[in-house]
Amino acid sequence: MKFGSEIRLGSFFLIFFIVAVLEFFWPRRQLLYGRVKRWPHNVGVVFLNSVVLRYTLPFLSGSAAVGTALWAQKQGVGFFNHFHFPYGVSVGFCVVFLDFAIYAQHYFFHRIPILWRLHRVHHADMDYDLTLGARFHTIEVFLSMLIKMALVVLWGAPIASVVLFEVILNGMAMFNHGNFYLPLSVDRFLRKMIVTPDMHRVHHSVIPAETHSNFGFNFSFWDRLFKTYKAQPLKGHEKMQIGLPDFRDPKYLKLWWFLWIPFEKTGMEKSPFPTSSMKKQVS
Fold first, then answer.
1. Total of domains in the chain
2. Does the CA dihedral 177-149-45-10 come out positive or negative?
3. b/e map of 117-153 (b: 16 or more CB within 10 Å)?
4. Listed residue (177, 198, 84) closest to 122, CA to CA
5. Residue closest to 262 by CA, chosen among 125, 118, 137, 111
6. Torsions phi, psi of 210, nearest 5?
7. Phi, psi (deg, nearest 5) at residue 147
8. Per-position b or e across 78-98, b if 16+ CB within 10 A of its CB
9. Residues 6+ apart with CB under 8 A from 33
10. What is the dihedral of CA 234, 26, 42, 152, to 10 degrees?
């Protein structure tokens, strides 16, 4: 457990540093508000969410998901704790399944109005960089953890698979929200398998048909398989507008204001998905 925590924490800081350097020297887009106005709040919510998880799930030390895997293993609960497969098979399956689960969860957080209210916090930022990958409402983070814990118990996921998945989840969240330039040939090659910054940036467009596309966070083939893939933004990456139309006030860059977003009534929460006519406009 302690070793797993060290791996996750070490990989987090390493990837954060690498992406931050890439953003500084090779930015993809010019930021509207910059790091000083946004980073303290986007990073601050990470600490808030960590504290909330620690005190609401005090029976699990370290990562709640890893702690759940350890508990399931000790109790002999879950599919892979009942049926014995080669260790590599069980680890690989659980990593891929959890990846799909995040895709599906993300889709439904857009599709279901009450969940979309929470998820708007992530989309309301008007800039796109690695800290956006951590800007989630505390309630969404808590619900996401409960879903993950339930799936870990269901499958009896090996501890190694959960540690590996957590490293991938945190690392890819920073990578695919990175505001750095990738040569187009490299982007085309990578997105055959994984979600690139350009691919995921489309998802943060103000245009509804683009907002509600590209739900994957790691493997890119889920979006192609379920026909939610959109290759490029209508207005191009440099000119596209990031965020949500109803949250253009800079006050929503501040932690205490963006935590209030789920309780704001704007009309967008009633129809989270674009209509067919909207889709045709950007097809």
1. 1
2. negative
3. bbbbbbbbbbbbbbbbbbbbbbbbbbebbeebbebbb
4. 177
5. 118
6. -90, -40
7. -60, -45
8. bebbeeeeeeeebbebbbebb
9. 126, 127, 250, 253
10. 80
Which tokens in the block code for residue 15? Answer: 């990837």
- Determine the average pLDDT of the residues in 168-182: 97
pLDDT value at residue 4: 61
Q: Residue 30 burial (CB < 10 Å; 0-12/13-18/19+)? A: exposed
Mean pLDDT of the chain: 92
| Paired tokens of 56 | 């609401």
**Closest C-alpha to 34, from 185, 193, 250:** 250
Please give the angle made by the CA atoms of 68, 174 and 153, to the nearest 5 degrees.
15
List of residues 6+ apart from 202 with CB closer than 8 A:
210, 213, 214, 230, 231, 232, 233, 240
For residue 278, give its domain range: 2-282
Which residue in this structure is represented by tokens 């800290």? 131
Token pair, residue 188, equals: 């085309």
pLDDT per residue over 95-114, tens digit each? Answer: 999 999 999 999 999 999 99
- Range in 145-149, 235-239, 266-270, 275-279 with the lowest mean pLDDT: 275-279
